Amino acid sequence: MKIAVFLGSVRQGRYARTIGEWALEQLEARNDGHTYEIVDLLEQDIDPLTAEVLPGMAQGVYEDPKTTAWSQLIAGFDGYLFVTAEHNASVPAMMKNAYDQLHIEWKNKPVGYLAYGGGGGGGAVKHWRDITERVGMINLAADAQFAFGEFFPDYVFTPGERGADMLHAVADELVDALERTAVAVDA
Ligand SMILES: Cc1cc2nc3c(=O)[nH]c(=O)nc-3n(C[C@H](O)[C@H](O)[C@H](O)COP(=O)(O)O)c2cc1C
């Protein structure tokens, strides 16, 4: 199955890409039979949400070709790892805008979080859990939170063994959730 590592920061000098590339390398080394791919918000062409039809009513059909392209990309994945910063105790606005454009594409699929920030990005994770639950995604018990003090000495992302353990705890649960879903669909 296919899992997206969704990078949600578009900021110049962002950490998101470094964290996402490290995560991708770790995930691919698992050799767990699943495919992992980066989806970088910076490489997507997504406008502010202005569509008249509510995403929850659209059933995956959109007037805006940019939303259609975004929908097709996201619909192609079975699960997601959100690499999320924390902005003012919540989720980054551009990432939320991209998320909000769609609905059915996310629904009933598992999502895990790799968060980072001063205190590890727990505020963003808390809000993402509410947001994704509203859309009907499957949340996991584990999440990875990288606090600046511990994981960014001298402003360099340094996950170490503890960081890798946190990532794999989330990936283990994500893969379990995917495999359970596949069994339910086949039954
Ligand atoms: C508008 C804004 C608000 C922020 N608010 C928080 C915050 O509430 N808590 C926190 O830990 N970090 C906060 N930060 C710091 C970010 O977590 C930090 O800049 C992080 O590196 C952003 O991710 P990026 O480097 O991938 O863009 C904020 C940053 C910005 C730009």
Structural features, described:
Pfam families: FMN_red. Its EC number is 1.-.-.-. Strand 3, helix 4 and strand 4 form a beta-alpha-beta unit. With about 190 residues, the chain is of the alpha/beta class. The longest helix has 27 residues, at about 160-185. About 45% of the residues lie in helices and about 20% in strands. Strands 1, 2, 3, 4, 5 and 6 form a 6-stranded parallel beta sheet that branches. The radius of gyration is 16 Å and the shape is globular. The chain starts with a strand and ends with a helix. It has one domain: Rossmann fold (3-Layer(aba) Sandwich), CATH 3.40.50.360. It has helices at about 15-30, 55-60, 65-75, 95-100, 120-135, 150, 160-185, and strands at about 1-5, 35-40, 80-85, 110-115, 140, 145. Flavin mononucleotide binds near residues 14, 87 and 117. Flavin mononucleotide binds next to loops.
Chart the SSEs and their pairings.
Layout: E1 2-7, H1 16-28, E2 35-40, H2 55-58, H3 65-75, E3 79-85, H4 93-100, E4 110-117, H5 122-134, E5 138-139, E6 144-147, H6 148-151, H7 160-186
Parallel strand pairs: 1-2, 1-3, 3-4, 4-5, 4-6
Question: Can you describe this structure in just a few lines?
Answer:
With 187 residues, this protein is an alpha/beta fold.
- The shape is globular
Task: Report on the biggest sheet.
Answer: 6 strands, parallel
Note the gap between the termini.
Answer: 17 Å
Bound molecules: flavin mononucleotide
The gyration radius over C-alpha positions equals 16 Å
Report the strand count: 6
- Poorly predicted tracts of residues: none
Oligomer, anyone? single chain
> If you average the pLDDT, what whole number results?
97
Q: Can you tell me the CATH class?
A: Alpha Beta
What is the CATH homologous superfamily assignment? Answer: Flavodoxin domain
Helix content: 40-55%
- Write the H/E string, N to C: EHEHHEHEHEEHH
What's the architecture in CATH terms? Answer: 3-Layer(aba) Sandwich
Question: How many discrete structural domains?
Answer: 1
Number of helices: 7
GO molecular function, one term: oxidoreductase activity
EC number: 1.-.-.-
Protein name: NADPH-dependent FMN reductase
Keywords: Oxidoreductase
